[in-house]
Write a structure and sequence with these properties.
single chain; 333 residues; Rossmann fold; five-stranded parallel beta sheet; 52% helix
Length: 333
């Protein structure tokens, strides 16, 4: 149990590491395509969220699919993220990007991706080893934020990384207000399927992270949805089985000041209309000045909740045995 908590508590140091890394020489680029999966790929989703109102385009590609058709026209810089360096979907993407003659940057600890970078002369950021990929989110998001600043998509991230590091350390400290809130929320979610709602780029990216952390750390089902889209479909899904849903599910809403002003009204009305069928257990606001700090404040809180859910359930949050078994089966195919 304590091993995952120790990893979570390295987030501040990870962000400070990213603040201090020496960046490779990069040409300005307003078109970025980020590829990655799982605990590595979430850094791409965070990068896209941070760039939501920035000039240019930051897109995320996951899976085996060929490169999107627009790449032949705009020639984006491809950023490939794989903590292990051996994620087969990411290797497939970067191979296609190389074949298409696209500029490539990699973020990895080693493996095949490091080998390809060395052989082909791609700029690469070497991330420290030794963590579960999902626990290295500070390294990966910090590296992405620095890359996007180097490309000219984001402003300099030095101060934001410092603020984010201080915030996550305060959040994950014993006895902090955030710790107490996370503890109470984990108790409320115990025995329930967690549903995490976001309402914009930052709160939505954080909602996705909460979902995947509950999956991997607590070994529990969860899902995430985004306002206002969920108000056009999911909001009516609570009408038919209230006797089941009110006892087995629980909603947590994440909010950020960058959410559209109408999201506030939608949250209020959506919860009022559905509360009798599914409990809305908490609303967690992002804190901090910079976009990165607010995103990481929600991330640290969600990581704590997922660890506490694992503790309540008596499961070890570190191993992901089913994922490892699946990888072995795929190798045998």
């Amino acid at each position: 149990m304590s091993e995952m908590l120790a990893m979570i508590r390295t987030l501040g140091d990870q962000l400070r590491w990213a603040r201090d890394i020496e960046m490779p020489a990069l040409a300005p680029s307003s078109e970025i395509l980020i590829g990655g999966m799982g605990g590595s790929g979430i850094a791409g989703d965070f990068g896209a969220a941070l760039s939501d109102r920035a000039p240019g385009r930051v897109a995320v590609r996951k899976g085996y699919d060929p490169l999107p058709g627009w790449v032949s026209r705009v020639k984006p810089t491809v950023v490939a993220i794989s903590y292990s360096g051996n994620t087969e979907e990411t290797i497939s993407l970067v191979t296609a990007a190389s074949d298409a003659g696209l500029p490539i940057v990699t973020i990895t600890t080693g493996g095949q991706l490091e080998k390809m970078s060395s052989e082909k002369g791609w700029p690469s950021i070497a991330v420290p080893k030794g963590l579960q990929p999902r626990a290295a989110v500070g390294y990966l998001v910090g590296a992405i934020s620095r890359l996007l600043a180097s490309f000219g998509v984001l402003a300099d991230q030095t101060a934001a990384l410092d603020e984010a590091a201080d915030l996550v350390e305060a959040t994950t400290s014993d006895g902090s207000e955030a710790w107490s809130m996370a503890s109470e929320l984990a108790k409320s979610l115990t025995g329930r399927i967690s549903i995490i709602y976001g309402g914009g780029a930052i709160s939505g990216a954080a909602a996705q992270r909460w979902k995947t952390q509950i999956n991997e750390n607590a070994k529990m089902p969860a899902w995430w949805s985004l306002l206002p889209e969920l108000d056009h479909n999911e909001v009516v899904s609570w009408e038919t089985l209230p006797s089941i849903t009110r006892g087995l599910l629980g909603i947590v809403a994440l909010t950020d000041r960058s959410d559209h002003p109408r999201i506030r009204a939608r949250l209020d009305h959506s919860s009022a209309l559905t509360q009798s069928a599914v409990p809305w257990l908490a609303e967690i606001p992002a804190v901090g000045d910079s976009d990165l700090a607010r995103l990481m404040s929600l991330t640290a809180c969600g990581d704590l909740v997922s660890w506490m859910l694992a503790k309540e359930a008596g499961v070890d949050p570190v191993p992901v045995e089913t994922i490892e078994k699946l990888k072995r089966l795929l190798v045998e195919d």
